[in-house]
Every structure is written in C-alpha cells, then in structure tokens.
Amino acid sequence: MEFVCNICGGVNRPAKPLDRESASCASCGSNVRLRSLMYVLSMELFGTELPVPDFPRVKSLHGLGMTDFSQYASRLAEKFDYKNTFYDREPRFDIGNPPHEQLGTLDFLISSEVFEHVLPPAESAFRNAFELLKPNGMLILSVPYSVEPSMTEHYPDLHQFGFAQIGDEVVLVNRTRDGEIQVFERPVFHRSGSGEALEMREFNERDLKRMLAAAGFTEIKIYGESYAPFGIVQSEPWSLPIAARKGQFALSLDSTREIMEQWRDQRQNIHADARRLDRALWFRVGRKLGLL
Q1: What's the DSSP call for residue 279?
Q2: Rounded CA gap, 154 and 167, in Å?
Q3: Do the Cβ atoms of 98 and 105 come closer than 8 Å?
C-alpha cells in the first residue's frame, strides 16, 4: 500500500504490513499510533481528515501535550497555542499534580502512553485531566489496554518506593502508608522519551471507559476504524485511540473568525492566480482548444 503521512506529508510505500508501534514513515519515523492520534485530533477539531500541515492556524485554541512526539509537537505549536511538556525535564508537567492556574484553560490535552505510568490511583489523573479542560474541551489519548474482563493494578498501595539491585535483577521496594514493606520482583519498564517509565497497570477497555466517565467526561469515543490514505491500519481491536469530551465541542467565536479569515485570504489568492493565468497567452489558447 502507499500512504501519505498525516504528520509530515511524506509519501510512503512500506514493504511490510503496518503495526501499532513500528516506525513506518520514512520521513519522520511516525507509527500507526501517532498518526492515529493526529487523525483523531483532526476529526474532533474540524470534523474532517486533515493532515497536520494543512490544519488551519488557530492561535486562540489552547492545547497541551504530555511528552508528545516531537515531529507533530513542533507542527502543532505552529498551528495553535500549544506547548509540549515532560515529566522529567523542562517544561515540566505532572498530571498527578497539575498547576492550579492551568485548571479550566485547555481546549485539548494530548496524552500518548502516559496514564499507564501515573501513580495510583489512576482515577485521580483522569480527574485532573478533566479539570484542566475548558467546559467544551477534550482529551485525546492512547494507552495499552486489553479486552480482558478486568484491569491489573500492579502496585495499588504504592507510597514510598525505590529500586534495588539484587544479583542480576532489579526489584521494587515499597513502604505502604501503614508502614508495611513490600517487595516486587521483575518490574516492567517502557521506553519514555529519553528514559524509561515504570508500568503501573494494565488497563482493560471496560474499566478505562468507566474511569473516564467517573472523572466527568460525557462523550467517550474509541476510534477503531482504519484510514489507509494516512497509513492508519488498526490490526487489533484493543489499544485504540480515544477522544473523551468534557462537553459538546464548538469552536469559539475567535477561532471561527481566524479560520474564516484564512479561508478568505486563500480564496483571494486563488482568484488572483486565476486572473494571472487568464492573461497568459498559452492558458487562453489551451482553454479555447478545450484542453483546460
């Protein structure tokens, strides 16, 4: 198959089937998961399948990313009032303890493969995400999840913890709030940015939707469909991108005005180009011969 990457615009002809995590854009290194997130953002903001380079410039839309992929983060910063953040370096942001002054300020929040790493209980992080959004804001997220009957919380009593090396193995040592010492063997780490992050839980679809609803989100949509023109092929019915809305989304008056002004400018440019072509001899000849 051939596809155009909706993050960078690169044309790709992959030699093997696409999967969720393998880099499949030769230009920017994006994978199906990352392209899916930008597809969801486009559908939720504009109601159509726009590649990120074609997003209208709407600086009145406020967005925040949590360790977002640099290739789309830089492009989103050109289009919106958007900032990418990190847990372990500047600009820092902790979804477990967001700054009070940021509450209720975001039109959208993007989180890819983060909520499986936040400290328990995960419900608190989802509630914080809800509080960060404006009344009509939305959370765009992906997490690894299964369709098993229940989710698994690896360390439900995590309080004061650290890691110790015992022989060739790393163990997690935790002191609970009640003072009990717990030791966990073979903790699982995921690649995260420039380092690694501890896997705290394994979500399942049912409990993930339940926690989002309990946090206050009124519309929760799982995007399970593929979109081959952008190289988005959902080969499994799990770990799919999700859009969770705080309320019914509508562009503000300022955002609508920005889009309409861009549309007006583009229409004027098209008309000006047409007038220039109309004055060209070969264009007039071609139109008279029915070639144009």
Answers
A1: T
A2: 23
A3: no
Q: What is the pLDDT of residue 258?
A: 81
Tokens of 52: 């990120």
Is the pLDDT at 79 greater than 90? The verdict is: yes
What is the DSSP secondary structure assignment for residue 258, as one 8-state letter?
Answer: H
Given the DSSP bridges, would you call strands 58-66 and 80-85 parallel, antiparallel or unpaired?
Answer: parallel
Q: What are phi and psi of 257, to 5 degrees?
A: -65, -40
Q: For residues 14 and 7, give the distance between their C-alpha atoms in angstroms, rounded to a whole number.
A: 16
pLDDT for 44 beyond 70:
yes
| Alpha carbons within 13 A on the beta-carbon side of 70 | 5
- Pull the structure tokens for residue 95: 């979804």
Alpha-carbon distance 133 to 109, whole Å? 8
Q: Beta 152-153 vs 201-204: how paired, if at all? A: antiparallel
Residue 148's region, left for phi above 0, alpha for psi from -120 to 50, else beta, is beta
Query: Are 262 and 57 spatial neighbours (Cβ–Cβ below 8 Å)?
Result: yes
C-alpha to C-alpha distance for 29 and 22, rounded to whole angstroms: 9
Mean pLDDT (the chain, rounded)? 90
How far is C-alpha 40 from the geometric centre of its chain's CA atoms?
8
For the segment 137-159, the average pLDDT, to the nearest whole number, is: 95
User: Cβ distance 109 to 63 under 8 Å?
Assistant: yes
The model carries a pTM of: 0.86
C-beta of residue 13 within 8 angstroms of C-beta of residue 86: no
Could you write out the DSSP letters of every residue in 156-210?
Answer: TT-SEEEEEEETTEEEEEEE-TT--EEEEES--EEEETTEEEE--EEEEHHHHHH
Single-letter residue type at 212: L
Question: How far apart (Å, rounded) are the C-alpha atoms in residues 263 and 258?
Answer: 9
Cβ burial, residue 162 (10 Å; 0-12/13-18/19+): exposed
Q: Which residue has the tokens 């029915």?
A: 290
pLDDT reading at 284 higher than 70: no
